[in-house]
Design goal:
The protein has 448 residues and is an alpha/beta fold. The chain has helices at 4-16, 51-54, 63-75, 87-99, 114-129, 146-151, 192-203, 229-241, 293-296, 312-327, 330-351, 380-392, 415-433, and strands at residues 30-34, 37-40, 45-48, 106-111, 133-137, 169-172, 210-215, 245-249, 273-276, 287-292, 355-361, 364-369, 395-396, 398-400, 404-407. The protein has a 7-stranded mixed beta sheet, sandwiched between helices. It has a 4-stranded mixed beta sheet with strand order 1-2-3-13. A 4-stranded antiparallel beta sheet has the order 11-12-15-14, with helices on one face. Helix 11 runs parallel beside helix 13. Bound molecules: pyridoxal-5'-phosphate.
């Protein structure tokens, strides 16, 4: 495997780029990508199981996205919707409104990143309800603008030194049935996690002051944790009883990732608002909040206005993205292939004690590695080494939550590509267990 050109770029990067915005895995310099295949600067090829952090559900350089972008660039690149109008903005908004759950009138507010959409949601919820408090979840990642960091509770590093953060944001435990923080098993579960909210409402958070609960329907960066249906039903009913907005944060799980347009649809819950980003425009910067019309009327310009929001080229890419998901039947493909992938990982789990849990929906799959199945202690080094070895063997695999292999390939990936990637993951697991992956790689494969 040649790495000269990649190393040249990585070394130059280390001289000039701030360390604040990179989590290190391995020195991969992207040169080109098509579908689920990436080529690096030295000509090595990889099967991509990361999709640029779930931002490329339609795959790399999908011809229809490229065509839409190229056509638009030739006419005009952007004119700010803050002052003027453009058609792709309205067309995309129409399409978004149609696929967002809820049989009611909705409106769209565009931004540029998942982070700003989270900030926008805080503002919108406060404006609509006249209440200031927002509830989100421990271990959640919602982004890096001030509001999004305030909602997040996944890493001390992202909160250290930069405070004060936004006031009146509270965090409750995410319902994690594999690593229940209350030490319960499914058979004995009495939903201690929802009781935490009830306790909060009894002693220190007046429910009538809470504007919104912002929740990922599958907690992505927390390690792809899927909440139980009974929790979701109870949480939703608590929101409704107390006039609290229920917001589904779909930046990572949206646009077909779970085999439905949005993750929340798996629970049969209709949220008051949905936060969107990442795959919405196949890699072009764009985000959106889609909410009930009456909610959206509550704030006024320029409370959430960015010159580049709703960028014309991004909107064209967004329209193409949605067409591709529909025309290529990607939701069905994702459900079917996802089932196959989960079955294969579950079979691996029977062979390797290292695999503690396999969980996921569609092509949003986490493989949780443990040192001991009983204690469930996270096997962080194993995750780092296996990901590094996969890269050496031609698979882009990362881990999050210290120990969870993140399997989120472009939804256009074929079964053959996916099988090949899983063969390589299994080889890497065997090489790890045989002690063939040196400790040195841990200096590079840090992950988070
Ligand atoms: C669930 C979730 N919300 C928000 C964000 C932030 O999005 P962005 O990086 O586009 O600002 C991310 C990014 O990883 C995410 O996974």
């Amino acid at each position: 495997m040649r790495t000269d050109k990649c190393m040249e770029v990585v070394n130059a990067d280390q001289d000039v780029i701030s360390p604040v915005s990179r989590v290190s895995y391995y020195p991969l310099v992207i040169k080109r990508g098509h579908g689920a295949i990436i080529e690096d600067a030295d000509g090595n090829e990889y099967i991509d199981l990361l999709s640029s952090a779930a931002a490329l559900n339609t795959g790399h350089a999908h011809p229809k996205v490229v065509e839409a972008i190229t056509e638009q660039v030739k006419d005009f690149i952007h004119y700010t919707p803050c002052y003027m109008y453009h058609e792709p903005l309205v067309k995309l908004a129409d399409k978004l409104v149609q696929v967002t759950p809820g049989d009611f009138r909705k409106r769209v507010a565009f931004g540029l990143s998942g982070s700003d959409a989270n900030d926008g949601m805080i503002k919108l919820a406060r404006a609509y309800t006249g209440r200031s408090k927002i509830i989100s979840f421990i271990q959640a990642y919602h982004g890096s603008t001030y509001g999004a960091i305030s909602l997040s509770a996944i890493s001390l590093n992202m909160r250290r030194k930069i405070g004060p953060l936004l006031p009146d944001i509270y965090h409750i435990p995410y319902p994690d049935c594999y690593r229940c923080v209350f030490g319960q098993k499914c058979s004995t579960c009495s939903m201690e996690c929802i009781k935490q909210l009830e306790i909060a409402f009894k002693y220190y958070i007046p429910a009538e002051e809470v504007a919104a609960i912002i929740m990922e329907p599958i907690a992505g960066d927390a390690g792809l944790i899927i909440p139980p249906q009974k929790y979701m039903d109870k949480l939703y009913s608590i929101c409704k009883e107390n006039g609290i907005l229920f917001v589904s944060e779909e930046v990572q799980q949206g646009f077909g990732r779970t085999g439905k347009w949005f993750g929340i649809e798996h629970f049969g819950i209709v949220p008051d608002a949905v936060i969107m980003g990442k795959s919405i425009a196949s890699g072009m910067p764009l985000s959106a909040i889609v909410a009930r019309e009456d909610i959206m009327q509550a704030w006024e310009a320029p409370a959430h206005m960015f010159t580049m929001a709703g960028n014309t080229v991004s909107c064209r890419a967004g329209i193409a993205t949605m067409d591709i998901i529909e025309d290529e039947n990607l939701l069905k493909h994702t459900r079917e292939l996802g089932e196959h992938v989960i079955n294969r990982f579950n079979r691996m789990k029977e062979r390797y004690e290292l695999i503690g849990d396999v969980r996921g929906t569609g092509l949003s799959i986490g493989v949780d590695l443990v040192k001991d199945r009983h204690t469930k202690e996270k096997a962080s080094e194993a995750a780092a080494k296996i990901c590094y070895r996969c890269w050496e063997k031609g698979v882009i695999l990362t881990f999050f939550a210290s120990s969870v292999l993140r399997v989120q390939p472009p939804l256009v990936i074929t079964r053959e590509e996916m099988d090949k990637a899983m063969d390589i993951i299994e080889e890497a697991i065997n090489e790890y267990l045989a002690g063939d992956i040196p400790d040195e790689v841990l200096k590079v494969a840090k992950g988070w």
